[in-house]
Amino acid sequence: MGIDPQGSRTLHVFSSGAGYTRVDRWQACKVEYHCVRGPVTARVLGLGADKVLTDGAILVPLLERYRPQVSDRSGRVVVVPHYETLDFPGWHEAVQLAGFDLVDPRDTPETVIRSLAGARLVLTESLHGAIIADAFGVPWRGFAVSRNFSTAKWADWTFSLDLQVDISLVPPPDPVQLFRFGKRSEPFGALLSLDQEAAFREFNERTSRDARAPFLKAQAKRMIEAIPAARRAMGYEGERTARALDELARLEPYCSRAGKRDDLRDAMLARLDRLVATCTASLIAMP
Fold this sequence. Notes:
Elements: E1 2-3, E2 9-16, E3 30-36, H1 39-45, E4 77-80, H2 91-97, E5 101-102, H3 109-117, E6 121-124, H4 127-135, E7 140-144, H5 151-160, E8 166-169, H6 176-181, E9 191-193, H7 196-206, H8 215-225, H9 228-232, H10 238-249, H11 258-285
Parallel strand pairs: 2-3, 4-5, 4-6, 6-7, 7-8
Antiparallel strand pairs: 1-2, 8-9
Helix pairs in contact: 1-7, 2-10, 5-7
């Protein structure tokens, strides 16, 4: 956010995307949109197609510090849960049972990015796990576990790259995650086809609904959470998650065209140059 010569507050949006909050929260700001993550964000904000590029992390391979070293090239399959998913038990063990490597997105940027860039295949619940893998040309597949998964954000990004993507539903090794975030209506093992219309509806629903659970239902869930045996009786275990991850790794992976990525990088760098020039001119003009 910068200050223009007249002293008003200006929010400069560059490659970001709509997510979990209503856009009317920005009404007090003067907003200048340079580019956004994808077509769903553009529709939410009422912007033209000329503002659509892709996620800014596509520029990461241009930075020497994040390029994988020879020692980083494991050629392994890596699994990237959402950072909140790793607050729940069983994921490290489940990934190990599948014979894969777990990448914790809460680790340092250098460690995470080099692990993804050096992988043979990335299985990811984290959107930026897919974005970083794709930026380096590493094949990937996306998966969802609970309602804590934004099809709107995923569709926004994948359509910016002209990708038509299915997301696999993977059961967690422990049901507590489903108690906290809610279980999706689709069965585990289903494939969710990302669609712009459905993504737009999901964004509106996610930013308007009251997420509070009824009191008695919440109390019952907390009781089950406190009893490990009751959770195991529900059929969630590491072996089941490991089998689902193994099946996911056998599906045809996704990766955008190299020429498409190059074109988007060039366009983003050109807009970044204009943004820098604009902000520099504003600072020079300030009294």
